[in-house]
Structures are given as C-alpha cells and as structure tokens.
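Q: Hi! First time doing this. I have a protein sequence and I read that you can turn it into a structure. Is that right? Here it is:
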Amino acid sequence: MDIGSTIRAIRKRKNITIAQICEETGLSQGFMSQVETNKTSPSISTLESIAQALKVPLAYLLLKKEDRMNIVRKDERKITTSGSEHLKVEHLSSTKNVRMMLVEIPPGASTGDIPHAHEGEEVHVVVKGRIYAEQGEDAAEFGEGDSFSWNACTPHMVRNIGEDTAIVLISIYTETDSRWDFL
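A: Yes, that's right. Below is the predicted 3D structure, encoded as structure tokens:
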C-alpha cells in the first residue's frame, strides 16, 4: 500500500503543512515525514488521527489505487467494434465488476442473428432511436428514454428497428473480473 503518498497528495491539495497536521494530531514532524515517504507504517488509530486532520474518511486512506475514482474523459474513451455487424462500442468507465458503455446500432443491425448468453446482469437505456429486445420468450420495443434489464445467462439479442442509428447505454455487472466483450 502507498498510504504515505496518498496522505501527502491530500495534504498538498488542501494546502496543509506537515506542521499543521502535527499540531492537530500530536505526531512529530519526523514521524509524519516517514509516513509520507512510506518509511514507516502508522497504526490504524494514528491513521484515523491523520484522516481527521485532513478531513477525509479513514477508509479513503486505505483504498488501493485501482479502487479509487477512475476518470475517462470523452475524448479518451476506448472505442471498439463488436459482433458480425461491427457495432461501435464506446467504453465509458468500469470497475472490477461493472462496465458501462454506449453502443451504436445502425438501422437494421443487431447484436447477432441468434440470441446469445453470458455471465452477468445488464441494464439498458435507449438514449436515441428505436430498438427491439428479446430475452427467451420475452420481447418488447423501446424508444428514447425507455430502459430494461435482464440476467444475461438467458439468451438475448437487441436489434435496431428504427430508421436512424440507435444509441443504447449498457451497464453490465459480473461476479468475476471480466474484461471480455459481451455484445
């Protein structure tokens, strides 16, 4: 863990000096310096005092880097294609178990000729256009603003039934750390 670097970054961002932290916590400047350079590991109670002085939750100091906020700017999104119809997929953001993407489906195109199944749960929001969605024996048409969800282990498919490109926001939750394409 790199708690020291986290403490230093928060302290500097908030324009707090080591002396101010030490005054509030009762810790020595030498000890705080060693904490910030990861040369010593403070106890949980010491970390709690430092967190209070920084006005951040203790839990934030304990987060691993990969568990912190992940920022993806619009112009930095990963863009891929999926399926035989090469649907455009913009990867918005993800955590270990949740992925969110925008999928562009041209008129008449679908996620595949035959319904497919995979691990996880999906939530869909139609941002633009008209689509038809089918899962097992259930099927419905959806327009802008409509949403639906399903357990993806049952075969399913989505088709654009409109005259313009449809855009669908999809969020996929999986129990395992899955990085492969579900469309």
